[in-house]
Specification:
- The complex is a heterodimer of chains A (286) and B (225).
- With 286 residues, chain A is an alpha+beta fold.
- Chain A is 32% helix and 34% strand.
- Chain A has a domain of 194 residues: 4-Layer Sandwich (Glutamine Phosphoribosylpyrophosphate, subunit 1, domain 1), CATH 3.60.20.10.
- Chain A is built from six helices and 16 strands.
- In chain A, helix 2 crosses helix 3.
- The model of chain A has no long low-confidence stretch (mean pLDDT 86).
- Chain B has one domain: Glutamine Phosphoribosylpyrophosphate, subunit 1, domain 1 (4-Layer Sandwich), CATH 3.60.20.10.
- In chain B, helix 1 packs across helix 2.
- Chain B is globular and about 55 Å long.
- The chains are: A alpha+beta (286), B alpha+beta (225).
- Chain B: InterPro entries: Ntn_hydrolases_N, Pept_T1A_subB, Proteasome_bsu_CS, Proteasome_sua/b, Proteasome_suB-type.
Chain lengths: 286, 225
C-alpha cells in the first residue's frame, strides 16, 4: 500500500530544521570576514562542599559571549526551594530556565506532599529532564541543599548523569577549583573553614581560567538558615583612574592637578627649566 | 543552492565552537571507561568494578559506584555512557519495584526478569544508547541454567581475558572469588587508562549483600616496576 509523503505534525523535543540553513549562513558570513553572534555562555567556576552542618555553594560572576565579557556581575547560584540551591555552568539561558522549571515543579510537588522537598527529588527531576534532551540543553549544575536526611551535594552533567559526592566542581575553571579541594578538603569542617575553602577554590578558577572572573558569590545552606552572600569577595574591583594635568600659570609657576575619581589634589611648583619640569611630572605621576 | 557536506554541523558538538574560552572536555559526554566483573560461586555471586568516570581526558568522579542496586538482591554493573546507564538502571528499578515487586508478585523477582528488562530497553534504543551492563544477583529458584559463570565487561576487560582464562576454575568458594575479582580488576586498572580509582566489590547471596571497598594503596600488587 503506497503512502503519501505527509509532513509530520510537530511533536515534543527540539526541531533541527534550520540547522542546514544556519550552517550555510555561517559559511557565507565567515566568507565576508564576520562571525555569527555566539550564545552567551557562563565560562564559569562553580563548586560546592559539604561541611559539618550543611552545604556551601560558590560561583564566580562572569558571563562570556565568545571572547567578550557579556555580564561582569551575573548571578549563577539559582534558587530551587527554600532549602535547595543550584549553581549553573554552561549556556546561561539553559541553566536559568532549567532551574526555574524544576523550582516551579518542585514547589507544586512540595505542596502536594506537604513536606519540605528533598535534594534527591530535585536531582532526579533535573537528570530526567536533561537526559530527555540528550545533552542539547547545555546545563552543567551543582545542586546542594539540606533536607530531613542531612546535607546533600550532587553534580549534574548536561547529558543527564549525576554524581553524589562530598565536594564537586564544574565549569571551565573546575580543574583549578578541584586542585584546591583535593589539597585542603577534610570531612566535617566548620562553617568558616568551608567558606574559606570554597572562596579559595573559586578564586583559583577566577585567576587561572579565562572564562571565569569578577566576584565570588557564596551560598551557605544549613538546617536552620540560608546565607546568600552576594558578593562574598570582590577580588576584581575596578581601579580608580588617575590623571595628571599641569598648567603653566605664569612663568616660572606651574600648577599640577591629580584626578583620582572624585578627589583631586593640587600643587603649585616653581620651575626653572625644562629638565626640572620633566622631573616634576615624573614625581607627581607616581 | 546546495550546502556542501562539510558545512553540515555535527550534532555532537556546539555550532560555533571556535574562539571559545570553554575547553573541550566540558562538552564531552561523561563515560564510565570501566572494568566490571561478575563471578558466580556456589551460593551466590561476586561482582566488582573500578571507580573512574571520565569526561574526555578529565576524571569527573574518581570514587564512582558502578554497582547499582536494582532490587534487594539484584545488582547491575554499569559501563558505557554514565547518563545512559543511570537512566536505564532507574527505569528498570522502577519497573521491578512497581510492576513485578509490589503489584504483581509476592516473591522477589528473578535475576532473569531484571536482565530481560535491561535487554528490552537496550535493544529498543540501541541506536541512541551506549551501554554495557552486567546483571547479577541471587533470585530464588530458576529454571534456566546460567551459561557462563564468569563475565567481564568494559574497556578494561580486554586486558584480563587471558588472566581469567588461566586463573578461573569452577568450584571456587566465596573468598577465592573475591581474591580473583580483586586481582583481575587491579590488573585491568593498571593497564587501562579509563579504569582506576578504588575497587568496589559486592557479594550477593541468600543472606544478603555484603559490600566492600579496596582503596588504591591496598590493591594487590603484581609487577615490581
Amino acid at each position: 500500500m503506497a503512502t503519501l509523503a505527509v509532513t509530520r505534525p510537530p511533536f515534543g523535543g527540539f526541531s533541527f530544521e534550520n540547522c542546514k540553513r544556519n550552517a550555510v549562513i555561517e559559511g557565507e558570513v565567515n566568507k565576508v570576514g564576520c562571525s555569527l553572534p555566539a550564545a552567551r555562555k557562563t565560562g564559569t567556576t562553580i563548586c560546592g562542599v559539604i561541611f559539618k552542618d550543611g552545604v556551601v555553594l560558590g560561583a564566580d560572576t562572569r558571563a562570556t559571549e565568545g571572547m567578550v565579557v557579556a555580564d561582569k556581575n551575573c548571578s549563577k547560584i539559582h534558587y530551587i526551594s527554600p532549602n535547595i540551591y543550584c549553581c549553573g555552568a554552561g549556556t546561561a539561558a539553559d541553566t536559568e530556565m532549567t532551574t526555574q522549571i524544576i523550582s516551579s515543579n518542585l514547589e507544586l510537588h512540595s505542596l502536594s506532599t506537604g513536606r519540605l522537598p528533598r535534594v534527591a527529588t530535585a536531582n532526579r527531576m533535573l537528570k530526567q529532564m536533561l537526559f530527555r534532551y540528550q545533552g542539547y540543553i547545555g546545563a552543567a549544575l551543582v545542586l546542594g541543599g539540606v533536607d530531613c536526611n542531612g546535607p546533600h551535594l550532587y553534580s549534574i552533567y548536561p547529558h543527564g548523569s549525576t554524581d553524589k559526592l562530598p565536594y564537586v566542581t564544574m565549569g571551565s575553571g573546575s580543574l583549578a577549583a578541584m586542585a584546591v579541594f583535593e589539597d585542603r578538603y577534610k570531612p566535617d569542617m566548620e562553617e568558616e573553614d568551608a567558606k574559606r575553602l570554597v572562596r579559595d577554590a573559586i578564586a583559583a578558577g577566577i585567576f587561572n581560567d579565562l572564562g571565569s572572573g569578577s566576584n565570588i558569590d557564596l551560598c551557605v545552606i544549613t538546617k536552620s538558615k540560608v546565607d546568600y552572600i552576594r558578593p562574598h569577595d570582590e577580588v576584581n574591583k575596578k581601579g580608580i583612574r588617575e590623571t595628571l594635568m599641569f598648567r603653566r600659570l605664569s612663568f616660572p609657576e606651574y600648577i599640577f592637578m591629580k584626578h583620582m575619581g572624585k578627589a583631586f589634589q593640587m600643587v603649585t611648583v616653581i620651575i626653572q627649566d625644562e629638565e626640572q619640569l620633566f622631573m616634576c611630572v615624573e614625581l607627581h605621576s607616581t | 543552492m546546495a550546502a556542501p557536506a562539510a558545512m553540515i554541523p555535527y550534532f555532537g558538538q556546539q555550532m560555533s565552537s571556535k574562539n571559545d574560552l570553554v575547553p573541550d572536555w566540558t562538552r564531552q559526554e561523561v563515560s564510565t571507561g570501566t572494568t566490571i566483573m561478575a563471578v558466580e560461586y556456589d551460593g551466590g555471586v561476586v561482582i566488582g568494578a573500578d571507580s573512574r568516570t571520565t569526561t574526555g581526558a578529565y576524571i569527573a568522579n574518581r570514587v564512582t559506584d558502578k554497582l547499582t542496586p536494582i532490587h534487594d538482591r539484584i545488582f547491575c554493573c554499569r559501563s558505557g555512557s554514565a547518563a545512559d546507564t543511570q537512566a536505564i538502571a532507574d527505569v528498570v528499578t522502577y519497573h521491578l519495584n512497581v510492576h513485578s515487586g509490589v503489584i504483581e508478585l509476592d516473591e522477589p523477582p528473578l535475576v532473569e526478569t531484571a536482565a530481560n528488562l535491561f535487554r528490552a530497553s537496550c535493544y529498543r534504543y540501541r541506536e541512541e544508547l551506549t551501554a554495557g551492563i552486567l546483571v547479577a544477583g541471587w533470585g530464588g529458584v530458576s529454571f534456566k541454567k546460567i551459561l557462563n559463570p564468569v563475565a567481564v565487561g568494559g574497556s578494561g576487560s580486554t586486558y584480563i581475558y587471558g588472566f581469567m582464562d588461566s586463573n578461573y576454575k569452577p568450584g571456587l568458594n566465596k573468598d577465592q572469588c573475591l581474591e580473583l575479582t580483586a586481582a583481575a580488576l587491579s590488573l585491568a586498572m593498571e593497564r587501562d587508562g579509563s579504569s582506576g580509582g578504588v575497587v568496589r566489590l559486592a557479594t550477593i547471596s541468600e543472606e544478603g549483600v555484603e559490600r566492600r571497598v579496596i582503596l588504591g594503596n591496598q590493591l594487590p600488587k603484581f609487577s615490581s616496576h
